[in-house]
Write a structure and sequence with these properties.
With about 100 residues, the protein is an alpha+beta fold. Helices cover about 20% and strands about 30% of the residues. It has a single domain, classed as Phosphorylase Kinase, domain 1. The protein is globular and about 35 Å long.
Length: about 100
């Protein structure tokens, strides 16, 4: 297993087909460093991460490439992301 922060993955890699090999704590994906997997389901894998330059915590969702072939799944994902961005609460930090 790679040292934390040493495992670099390009966004084109198959992140869901072999997650044990590609996604682990410390993996760097572009400007993000993965911290911890927080969920997994039929629509993908969810990780907490840190945006390095902004020094802020974010959540990243990785969905299978096959999802793009199902209009209803793409619409569901877009609707979910839109709702998430509309959330406002005293304990949710703005972008």
């Amino acid at each position: 297993m790679a040292e934390p922060g040493k495992n670099r993955v390009t966004l084109g890699d198959s992140l869901l087909n072999e997650p044990a090999k590609l996604l682990e704590s410390g993996t760097v994906l572009g400007k993000y460093r993965l911290i911890k997997q927080i969920g997994r389901g039929g629509m993908g894998v969810v990780w907490s991460a840190e945006e390095k330059a902004a020094e802020r915590k974010v959540v990243l969702k990785f969905v299978p490439h096959e999802v793009k072939n199902f209009e209803s799944a793409v619409a569901q994902l877009k609707a979910s992301f839109k709702k998430i961005h509309e959330l406002q609460h005293q304990h949710i930090c703005p972008k």
